[in-house]
Amino acid sequence: MRPLLERARENLRGRRVLAVMAGKGGVGKSVIAALLATAREAPLIDLDLFGMAVPKLFGVAGRLHEVGKEGIEPIEVGGVRIFSVGGIVGDRYVVLPGAYQGGVVEALLAFAKLGDAREVVVDMPPGMGEELLSLHRVADFTPILVTTPSAASHGVVKHLIDYLLELGKRPAAVVMNMAYVKCDGGVVYPFGKGEEVKKLVEMYKIPLTEVPIDPRLEDYIGEIYSYRGIVYETIQTLSKVI
Amino acid sequence: MHEWSLALSIVETLDKWALRQEVEVRRVVVSVPSVSQLDVEMLKEAFDMLKQESRLAKAMLEVKVRSPKYRCRSCGYEFGQVDVDAQIKALMQNYGEEYPLHLIPELAPTFIRCPRCGSHDIETELSIKIDEVETT
Fold first, then answer.
1. What is the predicted pLDDT for the residue at A229?
2. Which residues, other chains included, contact A54 with Cβ-Cβ below 8 Å and sequence gap of 6+?
3. What is the pLDDT of residues A73-95, one digit of tens each?
4. Are strands A16-21 and A119-123 parallel, antiparallel or unpaired?
């Protein structure tokens, strides 16, 4: 018997788990997860064991979790309660053979002190690796998929949707990040108009949210909780319908 | 302090299991890896406090501390705990009370390197498991 797996299941029981995931890396998934957690005032669990972007986005990289009798205390910043392996290892790399990744995910989900939160936002790593299998072992979850408009992305998004539907987990939304940028009174599509992604969501009947590029967002890395620009506004609108 | 949350995991898991099986638990054997540096006495004390009013109320906890055998997947070298003691000590000094393997022993390959080739690509048994349960 594995007590941590059972504890993790118990810890998430009755809470809605919004899992922000992507078929491939570099699509802005952690930023979307961070803004979604901010908009919903929900705890944010960083399961991207190797990327650990969440502590950097919130300006707490290197800060360690306190651990009490009841588990891991969140690192609270800007009203968001964060849990991350970054808060266990500090500001250093994580390298792990695949077999141990599941144990790390289960431990984090088992001991995260979630209090009375009725829902949590989970920042998943890209792809369909051990972390996704582990989350599935532990809890029911609602997927929110992030992609870019690029034709290079839609293939992996399709695979991810196919897999999730096979699990019986219909994505609540597909977020097409970096969809356009408003510039000199016009609209520019630096990564294309995402026609393939649009066809895909239409075929699967999944709501699509197009998130623009805001160059000012970069100024908020380290204090993303205080960003209230167009990307936040778009995520806030998305948040109301999922 | 982590011993308390671990003890709670053990009690909760077995209480639910015992309820399903319609049994009372008398003895539990849990095994933990030595790299976790868990305080066995504190774990037992927490278990004894938390087991009250559960199907483990009369249960005794035994804790086996496993000394892992490691194998480097890169060069094939096999080694024991004594070969990495210096690395563990340095890690404990660096982190103090927040020693990461105390909380998540599965993170060991992040910190421990093969004494022969220096690779982090090592394998061993690192999970915390319930090995035996005696019931009435």
1. 97
2. A30, A33, A34, A44, A46, A48, A82, A84, A86, A123
3. 999 999 999 999 999 999 999 99
4. parallel
Which residues of B fall below an 8 Å CB-CB distance to A? 1-2, 4-6, 8-10, 12-14, 16-17, 30, 46, 73, 95, 98, 100, 103-110, 120-123, 126-130, 133
- What angle (nearest 5°) sits at the alpha carbon of residue A169, between those of residues A125 and A241? 90
d(CA A27, CA A155): 14
Q: Distance of alpha carbon A73 from its chain centroid, rounded?
A: 20
Q: Is the pLDDT of residue B1 over 80?
A: no
Where along chain A do its domains lie? 3-233
Gap between the Cα atoms of B133 and B61, Å rounded: 10
0.90 surpassed by pTM: yes
Confidence (pLDDT) at B97: 78
Q: Read off φ and ψ for residue A45, nearest 5 degrees.
A: -105, 120
On whether the A3-233 domain is CATH 3.90.550.10, my answer is no
Q: Is there a contact between B9 and A108 if contact means CB atoms under 8 Å apart?
A: no
CATH number for the domain spanning B23: value is 3.30.2320.80
Q: Number of residue pairs across A and B with CB atoms under 8 Å? A: 104
* Residue B63 · residue B40 · CB < 8 Å: yes
Mean pLDDT of chain A: 95
- What backbone torsions phi and psi does residue A83 show, to the nearest 5 degrees? -130, 130
Amino acid at A219: D
Q: How remote is the C-alpha of A226 from its chain's centroid?
A: 18
Collapsing DSSP to helix, strand or coil, A165 comes out as helix
Q: Is the pLDDT of residue A142 over 90?
A: yes
pLDDT in tens, A9-46: 999 999 999 999 999 999 999 999 999 999 999 999 99
Average pLDDT over residues B50-70: 95
pLDDT digits (tens, 9 = 90+) for B9-46: 999 999 999 999 999 999 999 999 999 999 999 999 99
Tell me the residue range of the domain where B119 lies: 2-135
Whether residues B128 and A70 touch (CB distance < 8 A) is answered with no
